[in-house]
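#lab-general

N.A. 3:47 PM
ok so I finally got the sequence cleaned up, no stray characters, all 458 residues accounted for. can someone with queue access submit it? mine expired

B.Y. 3:52 PM
send it over

N.A. 3:53 PM
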Amino acid sequence: MKLNIKTLFLAGMLASGACAVAQNTASGYFLDNYNYRYQMNPAFGNERNFVSMPALGNLDVAVRGNLHLSNVLYSLDGRTVLFTNPGISAAEVMDKFSDKNRIGSDIKVNILSAGWRAWGGYNTISINARASVAASLPKSFFSLAKEGVSNQRYDIENLMASGRGYAEIALGHSRDITPVPGLRAGVALKFLVGVANVDAHFNEAHLTLGEDAWIGETNADIYANVGGFQYEHKLNKQGQPYVSGMNLDGDGNIGPNGFGMAIDLGAEYKWRDFAFSLAALDLGFINYSNTWYASTNGTRTVNTDAYTFNANDDAANSFSNEWKRLRDNLDDLYQLTDNGNIGSRTYGLGATLNVGVDYTLPYYRKLHFGLLSTTRIQGRYSWSEIRLSANVNPVKCFSADANVAVGSFGTSFGWMLNYHNTGFGLFLGMDHTLGKVTKQWVPLSSNASFNFGMNFPF
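B.Y. 4:20 PM
back already:
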C-alpha cells in the first residue's frame, strides 16, 4: 500500500480531529461497581469477581483538543464551508485559533479482562490493544492558509504529528495496608508489544517577505517504526532522490516491531466520609527495533537575493535559467532525504497522574461527590483537566453519575450509566458530550468520547 507524504500527513490530522480515544473514561473514576476503575487507579478493587465479554468488555474511544471543528468549519448561506472560504472574514477566523492548536486521540480496546479476590487482595489481568494520534499546529499555519502571503514573516515552527499503536498485557494486585487503617495500595505491571510508531516534526518553517527579496527556511524530520515499511522516492531536478511517499508493502512483515514495559501505581485512603486517592499510570517505554528516518538534514534555505536575471536569453543567468534554478530550490525546501534504517529508538508512553477526593453524604450514603484532577505528561502533547462529579447508587444493581470538566481543552459535560447485576453487567458513558453550532450539524467541539462494555460479574 503506497501513501503520498502530503496525503498521509493531512489524513493524520483529520483522523486525530475526527476519530477518537481516551486512555480511560474519567466519568467512571468514582462510580460504584464500575469494573474498570482499577485501570485509572490500581488501588481500586471490585466487590465482585468478573470476566469481560471478549473484545466488548471495555471499548474506550475519545478525542481531545483545543483545535475545535467549529474553528475550521462554518455555516455560510446554508452551506458548511472551510475557514478559508472568502465569505468568512480573516478577523473572525483568526480570533478562534490559539498560539498552539493541539488535537489528540486515543483508543483502547479490551480483548479480555478478569478480576478476582485471592492472595489477600483483588487481582486483575487485562489484554488491551491501544492506539493514539496527536498533532500540534501553530497559529501561523492557519494564518498563512487564510490570509495567503500578505504578512512580512511567517513562523510555522513546532508543527508536529505522531501516531502509535501497541498491545499490552497488564497484571494488577491491590490490598488493604493493615498497619494503616483506611489505606489501600495497588500496582499493575504491563508488558508491551509495539506495532507501529510515526513521529513527524517540522522544527522550522520560516518565510520572510521583503520589498526586494524573501527568504524561506525549513527543517523537518520523520521517524517511522512499522514492519514492512519503506519510503517511496522520486528524483528532483538535480537528479537526486527524495521521499515522495510511504510504502507498507516492502520487505518484512507488518507485525510486532518493538517491546517495552510499564507500571501503574496507586493508593487510596479513607477517612470518615472522605476517600483520597492518587495514581501514576503508564510509567514506562517501548523500544522499537527498526527506525526509518527521513530528514531535510539540517536547515534548508532559499534567498531570492542569490538570483540575478539577465535579459539575454543566451546568458547563463538568463531569465528562464534563473527561474528554473529558483523553482528547483523552492522544491528542495520540502524534500526529505531517506537516511535509511538508523536502528532502535525508545519512546516514553506519556504518563498520566490522577488525584481524587470523594465525599459521601452522611445522611444519604448512596450519593457522593468526587473531584478528580488528571494530568497527561507527554512533552508537547501534555494536557490537564479538573472534573467534578455527582455519583448515585440508588439500587443494588444500578449506578450513575453526571460530571463537568474544565481544562486544557475547554469545558465539557460527561455522564455514565452502569447496570451491574450478578451474571451480567453493562455500562455506557461519555466524558465529552457533543453539541452543534448550526442546523447543519457543524460540531461545536472536537472533544468527544465513548465508553461501552459488557461483563459477567460473579
